[in-house]
Write a structure and sequence with these properties.
Length: about 130
C-alpha cells in the first residue's frame, strides 16, 4: 500500500528527528508521498510560531530533495471531507484523511486520532523527551 505522510512526519523527516527506525526504513524502501497540504500547514504553523523552520528554508525544495512524491489536493479530496465522521475538527487532518481514502493510501502519523476514521494508519513511535 502506498504511504501518505502526515505533516508531523514530513516535518520530523526534514528535521532529522524521526525516531521510529522501522517506519523510517519503510518510508525509505517503499517511497512515500507528501501532500501539498503539508506545505500549507507548515507555512501557517511557522507563521504562528508553532513550527520553527530554518531561515533559508524552502519547504517545497526540502521535501522534493528527500525524494517524496507530491499528492496535490483535488476537488474529490475536498468533497470527501463531507463523508467523514466528526471525530475531531482539525481541517488539515480531515483533508489528509480524505486524501488517503480517495487515493487508497495508508497514512503514516504519530496521532492516534486518525484511527477511528477507518483509514489505514501506520502509527509511528514518537521520540521520547
Amino acid at each position: 500500500m502506498r504511504l501518505l505522510l502526515d505533516t508531523c512526519i514530513v516535518y520530523d523527516w526534514l528535521m532529522g528527528t524521526v525516531a521510529d527506525e522501522k517506519v523510517a526504513d519503510l518510508i525509505q524502501t517503499t517511497g512515500a508521498m507528501a501532500s501539498a497540504l503539508a506545505v500549507w500547514e507548515m507555512a501557517i504553523k511557522h507563521a504562528l510560531g508553532k513550527m520553527p523552520l530554518p531561515a533559508s528554508a524552502s519547504i517545497v525544495a526540502d521535501i522534493e530533495s528527500q525524494g517524496f512524491e507530491w499528492l496535490y489536493v483535488s476537488p474529490a479530496h475536498a468533497e470527501h471531507v463531507l463523508h467523514l465522521p466528526a471525530v475531531h475538527k482539525d481541517p488539515f487532518d480531515r483533508l489528509l484523511i480524505a486524501q488517503a481514502f480517495v487515493e487508497g493510501m495508508q497514512i503514516v502519523t504519530y496521532d492516534e486520532v486518525f484511527v477511528p476514521y477507518g483509514v489505514p494508519v501506520l502509527l509511528a513511535r514518537k521520540a521520547q523527551g
